[in-house]
Every structure is written in C-alpha cells, then in structure tokens.
Amino acid sequence: GAGVSQSPRYKVAKRGQDVALRCDPISGHVSLFWYQQALGQGPEFLTYFQNEAQLDKSGLPSDRFFAERPEGSVSTLKIQRTQQEDSAVYLCASSLRDRGLLGNEQFFGPGTRLTVL
Amino acid sequence: DAKTTQPPSMDCAEGRAANLPCNHSTISGNEYVYWYRQIHSQGPQYIIHGLKNNETNEMASLIITEDRKSSTLILPHATLRDTAVYYCIVRGTGANSKLTFGKGITLSVRP
After folding, report:
1. Cβ atoms of residues B34 and B100 within 8 Å
2. Are B25 and B31 in contact (CB under 8 A)?
3. Are B64 and B88 in contact (CB under 8 A)?
C-alpha cells in the first residue's frame, strides 16, 4: 500500500519567497504531524492535526509558518518570506489513531529538502 | 516527554548482533520506549516499542531493565542496510503524542 508521500522532494527558494510543501498521509490516518530537521540534528516537532483540526502548533518557529489540513487528509505547510535559517528537511508523518497504543505509530514521508539562498 | 541519552556512534561487523543502549532515567510510569531509525535521505522508520516487558518483532528486540531507566535495542544479525541513525524516544499514549527526537546514535555496519 502507499505510504506517506511528500512533494516536492527538493525545493530551492530565494530569500523572501513564499513556499508551499505538500503532504499526502496514508489514507484513513487521523493524525498528521510536521517536523523540521536541520542538518545533523534529529527531527523537531512543528505542528499536529487531528483530522482537520490543528490541535498543537507550539513548534512553529514564527508566524511566517502556517499549516493547514482543510479536509482532514492532505496537508500543506506554507512558509512566507523564507529566510536562510528555514533551510532544512521538512518531514510529514501520519498515524492511524490519535491516542492509545495500537495504531499510534507514526509513519514518515521522505521529506522535502528546502534550501533558501 | 522524558529525555533520553544515547552514545553518539558505534559500529559492528556485518552478521553480528548490534546492541544499541539508551538511558531514560526520568521515564514515568505511563510512558513507553520507542525506537525509530533513519537511513540516509529517508524519513524515520518505526522499529519497535515497549513498556516494561521485553519485546521482539521481525526487525529487532527491545530489552528494558526492570527499573525501566534504560533499554537496549538489539539487531540480531546486522547487515549493511542497517547502517542508520537510531533514535530512542520516550512518549506517552495520549492525544498528540509527538515524538521528541534527540541526536540519536549512528550505527555503522562494516563488511
């Protein structure tokens, strides 16, 4: 079956440009997470959706970062006025359930590598 | 989530067992130990998780000490494809159980 997919896989942006990163979770998965991974570091949490509701956006580094999941499936992470420090791999993960033990494992996409020049 | 500590790197010979340690001395009673790995240029991959009993699946075994303050991930017969960064994570099972990654341990499997 299809896993989590992300597009584009690579994005180069000039400083100040807006970018939009797409995540297609596994069909039927309730929870969706976005993480940011800087070079040489582990992924860091950005935001969390339960279906279409954004329940936690505590990890978003600034108000230039915005995420949405309007129909509870596909999600988009938008970064406005990109800065060089936004360069990183952006990972999306989904899980079948939003709590409990079974079905709570997160499945990750391959990530989008964003380079801001 | 409680923090974990892992050595930065280790290596092992192909075909031998790889034992990856993790300390989580502040783990609370309702928190589980999860292991993920990340092969170069890929997203993290779930391996295994456990509460207090030892667990085994087709990928690995997880040994958790009786006091739950540390654990060991065992890859019984490491292959070159197991070369990756391995993350030990402690998390609850409530809503929004986001994963808090550290730097992980880089396992290098040598021929």
Report:
1. no
2. no
3. no
B30/A99 Cα distance (integer angstroms): 13
Nearest CA in chain A to B47: A105
In this prediction, what percent of chain A has a pLDDT beyond 70? 94
Residues of A in contact with B103 (CB under 8 A): 40-42
CA A42 to chain CA mean position, Å: 15
Close Cβ partners of B51 (under 8 Å, ≥ 6 residues apart): B32, B33, B64
CA A110, CA A23: separation in Å to the nearest integer?
A: 10
pLDDT in tens, B20-72: 999 999 998 888 999 999 999 899 999 999 999 899 999 999 999 999 999 99
Kindly give, in sequence order, each residue whose CB lies less than 8 Å from that of residue B81, ignoring residues fewer than 6 positions away: B39
